[in-house]
Amino acid sequence: MNNARDHQRVNDILLGPLERPVLKWLAARSPAWVTPDLYTCVGMAGALVVLAGYALSNLDRNFLWLASLGFVLNWLGDSMDGTLARHRNIERPVIGFFMDHTTDAASQAVMFLGLGLSPYVGFEIAALALIAYMMLSVVIYVRTYATGEFVISYGKLGPTETRVIAVGLNAVMFFAGTREIAAGALRLNPYDLAVGGVTLLLLIFFAVTVVRETVRMRKTNR
Description:
Blueprint: E1 8-10, H1 16-29, H2 36-56, H3 63-87, H4 93-117, H5 123-147, E2 149-151, H6 159-176, E3 181-183, E4 186-188, H7 190-219
Parallel strand pairs: 1-2
Antiparallel strand pairs: 3-4
């Protein structure tokens, strides 16, 4: 088993070449009074804004833009807390890891459930997506403890890409409104299908990771 202090972070995401310079630029220009903990709070506040935006979209679809703003704030806080700590050499490997990922779990629960409160995606579908996301998160954290490697990207996709997909889906929902696709006697919600597709992808990542790591550990007799 490995110590949380010593894990290696792997984040090979599609948007990494664009994201990393932006985060470094923001870290270098963050005022002294802005701390990593403050950024963590911004991320959690962003999740609550997402929840409010989705819930209020029952009254007016313009609140979908508020939900999208929440995703941006969540990205900023979630990405910048660790980036700023590394930039200032004030990392706290144990409590930082603990706080970062417990608040991540809370944020994810709030945002997915918020999506289920909107008039666009069924609550059951949003809950299934949350379960799949949490399952993959558990595998990531357990694998980190077992191997010392913290991998948060799968198939070039990570939390940043997930937020971009969510913002894109919000734009589609705003312009297209609530929709149904007729398939014989069935009436299908295209947004349920889209979120269901993401859910299936998360479950595939979960299954592949579990099988691959189990085989590898058996071969090395760990």
